[in-house]
Prior knowledge:
Two copies of one chain form a homodimer. Chain A is of the alpha/beta class. The first copy, chain A, has a single domain, classed as TIM Barrel (Alpha-Beta Barrel). Helices cover 42% and strands 12% of the residues of chain A. Chain A has a nine-stranded parallel β-sheet. In chain A, helix 4 runs parallel beside helix 5 (124-145), helix 6 packs parallel to helix 9 (211-222) and helix 9 (211-222) packs across helix 10 (252-261). The longest helix of chain A has 22 residues, at 124-145. Chain A is globular, with a radius of gyration of 18 Å. The interface between A and B is medium-sized, with 31 and 31 residues.
Amino acid sequence: MRDFSADHRWLSINTATLRGAGRLDTAIEACARHGVRAISPWRDQVAEISLARTRELVRTHGLALSGYCRGGLFTAVDAAGRRAALDDNRRAVDEAKALDAACLVLVVGGLPGALAGRVASKDLAAARREVADGIAATLVYARSVGMPLAIEPLHPMYAAERACVNTLAQALDLCEELDPLSADSLADSPTAAAALGVAVDVYHVWWDPQLEAQIARAGRHRLMAFHVCDWLVPTTDLLNDRGMMGDGVIDIARIRGWVEQAGFAGYSEVEIFSSGNWWKRPVDEVIATCIERHRRVV
Amino acid sequence: MRDFSADHRWLSINTATLRGAGRLDTAIEACARHGVRAISPWRDQVAEISLARTRELVRTHGLALSGYCRGGLFTAVDAAGRRAALDDNRRAVDEAKALDAACLVLVVGGLPGALAGRVASKDLAAARREVADGIAATLVYARSVGMPLAIEPLHPMYAAERACVNTLAQALDLCEELDPLSADSLADSPTAAAALGVAVDVYHVWWDPQLEAQIARAGRHRLMAFHVCDWLVPTTDLLNDRGMMGDGVIDIARIRGWVEQAGFAGYSEVEIFSSGNWWKRPVDEVIATCIERHRRVV
């Protein structure tokens, strides 16, 4: 397991963590100021300052993108909605490619209509089939341009609105179904990434009794991103009450140990949605705290 | 699958649903008034009016107990706490027996100290071993008096504070480890219940990709209770924002179909924690709505 205690070279900041900073350019400049080497921006933040400007800033500061957030949301109430989702995912792949992201993270979508508050179907199995079809269609395009897709299993409390892929086992089943890897092809090209893999966020998976076994099953070809924050006790909001690493109950270092044991050697990406706390603090304080916790508890 | 549309003979009311009614005697009398044949009371509600008075009311009105809530909370910050938990669980078994409950429901406990807001350990695997030890110890006593124990896997969002058993698969692994059933013994006594089984609450398990398969695995000997309510979109509170059946996104009838296919033929128990809505309404309106939804959407 890599020693993170001496520096923060493997720290990445998901820029959702810095929503309190205002625009993405301000957030990127703050990251650069603190010697952060990698970020993972959100599409709405990029759109606000333009893709070209984002690309310029990323290059100027020599930043890597540990991921790009996000594609997915494949389920829809009708065929037009499903087509629009696929079009939008191709655009997301193009943006990720333009920014040279390590992967496009997929938050796959929940029950059709649920995120808008008008559930059109309670058929969770059907939603899951729709998700598989959406990933399959997007994968054809993503492969053609060489952009890996990382399915992010979300905590089961998001199954209705955001993602009906809720365990690492389920995400890996999809990977094996849609992007089978032969032992030979992997042996021939030991450093090649798969076209389809997973993003492991400790917030979503820490509770899973199968976690250690499924991380081992994933292996380095499927482990495309590792996200950290913490589960607060008590948690007061289902979406925007995530904690800074060390302030909650997740044994983050243990999970990072499993991920690295399986061969992951990328960035540890801090992604904290925190409307009541961290989004209200000065951006320099937030980044300094991320760095300190990265070195001490991740 | 049984037809629930014509009557509510298989409806049970978990009296947590009626916390707005005030004391348990008021709640029980309201259930009797509406022709409800079964209830499942909570220990704090029983303690308030005394076990003897509860027993008298239950007998007077000819009520069955589909379960008794709750035992468990086995994890503790020290050895004294663990001993106290075991003592308390024996008392819970005695109370369940005095009321002739179908089973004692176990909410097994989370990380030690978390429910009190002071987490003493982040070692989830250790908490799970402690839970297994606690169930094993309690099972010796429960077997001796003939009270079945039903492990209730809780939604993963309760893993920290309330229960670190979070999937039906995990609960069934515990059942098989602690209370193995031989094919012969079951064949000899086809109606015998196991000493250790599970309580399936749709709120906790509806999202699980393995749900159908694990219900089939459980079978009638392990399926000791079936709880219903609904998952609201959006959910505004992690604990007390559960919905009335039909107001949320769970396909309850489909899950009941799986449970009955596996051999369950007991009560469908309504358990709704709802501080903002149902606990504020008149108890007769709550029960009438439970009955109507039981007939129409369960």
